Amino acid sequence: MARKSSIKNLTNAKRAKNDEFYTQYSDIQKEIEKYLDYNPDTFRNKVIYCNCDDPFESNFFRYFALNFNKLGLKRLITTSYKPSPVANTQLQLFGDNKTLPKVKGRPKVTANKFIINEVKDIDEDGEFNLQDVAKQLKANKNNEWAPLEGDGDFRSDECIELLKQADIIVTNPPFSLFREYVKQLFDYKKKFLIIGNINCITYKEIFPKIKENKVWLGNGMGRWISGFIVPKSYELYGSEARIDENGNRIVATNNCLWLTNLDHGRRHQPLPLMTMEENLKYSKHKEIKGKKSYEKYDNYDAIEVPFVDAIPSDYKGVMGVPVTFLDKYNPDQFEILGSLITDNNESYSYGVPYINGKKVYARILIKHKKK
Ligand SMILES: C[S@@+](CC[C@H](N)C(=O)[O-])C[C@H]1O[C@@H](n2cnc3c(N)ncnc32)[C@H](O)[C@@H]1O
User: Fold this and answer.
1) Predicted pLDDT of residue 89
2) How many CB atoms lie within 10 A of CB 302?
3) How close is the Cα of 89 to the center of ligand 1, in Å?
4) Ligand 1 within 6 A of 258 CB?
């Protein structure tokens, strides 16, 4: 019992820490550019809301403020969360900006809202940068920088009011509140681009929406997001941690993805595949090559396809494929029928997969789309 509760405490501590993983500018830029490649007007005349983002620390704010005109934004709204351990403390995002009030010791922590309607080279030094944004915010001309009444919780009435005004929500929300966070986006029928843990695709709040093509993955999972900035208090260990050229502490993870309902080119590219006969003859996987046929599950009428690149192009029935298939999923090529992931009572879920009495890896059930 004591052991159980200490494991729970550790897990909770880890979760709380993961809530303080900050996104790198380069990862945001890399992802957003994919939507622009597909449709340069994806963000044009749109109100963007980053609702888990202290402008002093968030690269989402920084990215959208600096690219405000290039993207053709109508408005950028950002709200910070008061209990954040780094709220209002990381002024370096505003460079050496002399216009910000100097504070002795740790500044008073309040939750703020920033509303930007216009950005320009205000100091006319020929370059538009965050100092211009800070000056314009301070002058309160066409832009607003004001304290929130509450703590900036994305579920609070005042943040929901801002959410209602927004067209697209873009952020990396707290992992520990992810289910609630995403549910709110669905409830308010918002367009969004957010970062989540890979496991989120199996959540009952999300998998059915992926199945119905109401939400999908962004442009890559795993290493596509190259790492997160962590606070000074976060212990760095192993080869997955480094300090970047700006002194930021970066932890590389391979378990995150972008989740979105904004369209992009990758999901319209068909997966190149061999026929079943070709796979059985030439597959690079020893589990397939030389076999007489693909295996079948004991508890569901489908063939087991252990690798995404071994999906036969000519099989008309149902196929069980690895969860990573979703990273390659093209809704014009395949349809998703359900999952063999867990034993829950959801209508799309058919339990965990078994072959010859042995439990095998979690699978997604798919079928080729009829031409
Ligand atoms: C994973 S961090 C990411 C921060 C930032 N969005 C970024 O990508 O760099 C999640 C952020 O959400 C904030 N947060 C935690 N609980 C929140 C809540 N209930 N409402 C709004 N923000 C919250 C945390 O303080 C933290 O700054």
Assistant:
1) 47
2) 24
3) 15
4) no
For ligand 1, atom 20, which residue shows the shortest CA distance?
153
Cα gap 221→311, rounded to integer Å = 20
Cβ–Cβ < 8 Å for 305, 360: no
**HSE of 63, CA atoms in CB hemisphere, 13 A:** 21
Taking each helix axis from N to C end, the angle separating 130-139 and 59-66, rounded to the nearest 10 degrees, works out to 90
N-terminal to C-terminal alpha carbon distance within the chain: 56
Closest CA to 192 of 183, 200, 201: 183
Q: How far apart are CA 304 and CA 287, in angstroms?
A: 11
Amino acid present at 277: E
Q: Which atom of ligand 1 is the closest one to the Cα of 54?
A: 27
Burial category of 337 from C-beta neighbours within 10 Å (exposed 0-12, middle 13-18, buried 19 and up): middle
Token code pair at residue 14: 């880890």
Cβ 210 vs Cβ 227: under 8 Å: no
CB 366 within 8 A of CB 321: yes
Q: Is any ligand 1 atom within 6 A of the Cβ of residue 22?
A: yes
pLDDT of 255-303, one tens digit each?
A: 999 999 999 999 999 999 999 999 999 999 999 999 999 999 999 999 9
| pLDDT tens, residue by residue, 206-238 | 999 999 999 999 998 888 999 999 887 777 766
Rounded alpha-carbon distances, angstroms, from residue 90 to 37, 109, 197, 364: 33, 12, 26, 43
Contact 350, 299 (CB under 8 A): yes
For residue 318, give the nearest of 346, 280, 348, 287 by alpha carbon: 348
* pTM (two decimals): 0.90
Mutate to test the pocket of ligand 1, among 81, 90, 229 (most ligand atoms within 8 A of CB): 81
Q: CA 302, CA 87: separation in Å to the nearest integer?
A: 51
